Amino acid sequence: MKRTLLMSCLMTFNIMLSQMTVTPNVDAQDLILNSLIGNPNFPASNFVVSSGTNFGDVNGLGTFNYVGTNFNFDQGLVLSTGDVTFIAGPNINQLSYGSQSWPGDADLDALFGFNTNNASSLEFDFVADVESVSLDFLMASEEYDETFQCSFADTFAFILTNLNTGVSENLAVVPGTTTPIAVTTVHNGQTTACPAVNEAFFDRYNYLPFNSPESSPIDFNGQTKVFMLMGDLDIGSSYSIKIVIGDALDTVFDSALFVRNDSFGAFPSIDQPPVAVVVEDADENGTEVFDLTSNEAAMLGSVDTNVYSFVFTYHSNLSDAESGINAISNPEAYTNTSAIETIFVRMTNPYTGTSITDSFQITIDADLLSVDDLELDTLTLYPNPVIDQLFIYTSTSQIENVEVYTITGQLVKTKINNQEDSISIDFSNVSNGLYLIKLTSENGTVYKRILK
Q: Comparing C-alpha atoms, which of 140, 134, 136, 135 is closest to residue 203?
């Protein structure tokens, strides 16, 4: 593992050969609007950044582009506790930039109870006119090694503050917990100094004997997997968001946040679930033409489409909808293939790439809808968002089976009902995120969305 500084000419040579290109930048509006927020109409204002250049030191802010398959993002912005000029791989140099003249961040100090140094941050305000926002990132650090990952918690925060109430929340926590994400809280057990912690969210070490340092796209010893953070909003309230990273306790061994380009934005939300579409088979030939898009206005609800753009695609099965493949080519004029069909709709933010799915039925005979759903108006799932236990109740049809899927279609829980009117599902060990609940009864199947 590297622990020796090489001469600067060798560092420059390796950066030139790297598949990652880093461009230093301290222009607040440019960084936030053009590299963080994808939607040019997003109601953001009051852009502020801070890094070493504010204190006569090196710059920890910039953008990156990557060509290859070894890194999770092809472009985005980066916040570092050192000099971003040197963060591109391979992993052969020790990154330990920034002096005592470059201070930490008071919000980080208050959150974590210790002094930080070499903080880089960006901030902006926005007005909430959607229910939630999301962001994709990963953390990388030189502290990932045999010993430092056990005690040096280079740390960061994504602080969402409701400016109307003054209430702040750090969104950067390990999914399903209240534990802040840091080097000390996310690593695996391949090293011997301390046991694994939240190992499922750690990606890789970038040094031998684990991986070839020459193959690393970044010049850091280790990195997490990609996290998607979500923040729930009160529509009509004003908010600030602050993204900040700092060295813990000292100024040595840098860390960085890599944020996927255009990943901050509105998370899709369906205001009213799509309802069944009926086109009676007047000529009794078994087929009719359906406009699958007829639910879109109700699903969007009060969303201002002059500000937010959402794309709807329609699919014949859940797997295709969750993967965003094999969309029905002409949803405005779709010819049915059976008397009653389930159609899956995918709602996507084209800027951030985030999406959710739902389903509805189409039929040529309204009487067939008696085998539909579970009478959605009498089906109750609560609380939503769920914390520990999800309760499901219906007064009109016996639920036989419940399956819980991730938004990527992975089955995470299943439960068979034993003739009860209500069912509880344990979500206490389930990661935060959006889930699809499949409920099966003697009358058919219905899908509902649940947020944790």
A: 140
pTM summary value? 0.78
Which of 121, 159, 140 shows the shortest CA–CA distance to 31?
121
Domain ranges of the chain: 8-265, 268-371, 373-452
pLDDT per residue as tens digits for the range 407-441:
656 788 888 876 666 788 999 888 877 787 888 87
Q: pLDDT (tens digit, 9 = 90+) per residue, 3-36?
A: 333 333 333 334 444 589 999 999 999 999 999 9
Topology given in CATH for the domain delimited by 268-371: Immunoglobulin-like (2.60.40)
Residue type, 146: E
- CATH, domain range 373-452: 2.60.40.3080
Distance CA 289, CA 196 (A): 56
* 203 burial via Cβ count (<10 Å: 0-12, 13-18, 19+): middle
